[in-house]
Amino acid sequence: MDIRTASEEQLDEVFAVYSEAIVAMEKNGIHQWDEVYPDKQIISEDIAENRMFIGIEDGWIAVCFVLCEECDDEYKNGRWLFPGSRYIVIHRLCVAPSFQHQGIAARTLCYIEKICKSKGYDSIRLDSFTQNPYSRKLYNKAGYAVTGYAAWRKGRFELREKKI
Predict the structure, then answer these.
(1) Per 3-state DSSP, what percentage of the chain is helix, strand, and coil (rounded to 5)?
(2) For the chain, what are the domain ranges?
(3) Which of 10, 62, 84, 85 could form a disulfide with 122 if both were Cys (CB 3.0 to 4.6 A apart)?
């Protein structure tokens, strides 16, 4: 898989991946995202800030995610395991429905961990919707520890962290 930053020209294609994923999640009873979040404006800002990454597999976007040092105020609820570490945050990790259940997310996490470690980060933080069994299983298996909880519009999220 070829992982790279998304370009402005790919905005519609990236937004389509999220839109298709929302439909698939709804079909599975996972009400994590909707037309409000993540919307096209948020994705456009992520691309403009060079923090939206895409993984290309067989000529198609298989995965999208954001890496940045910014996090919501709700992250203060975390009892972070490595409070003094230099950390980065994964936001909006999304596997295109046609690529789900093929190990893409796990491979993407390995890539993220490797590249972030090479850039001097000590840990990775993220949040995971408590009603999404797929993401919870992924992060548990990858060693991301639950450090607390956050409440947003769609419900309760686990705050997670991993030393890299």
Answers:
(1) 35, 30, 30
(2) 2-163
(3) 85
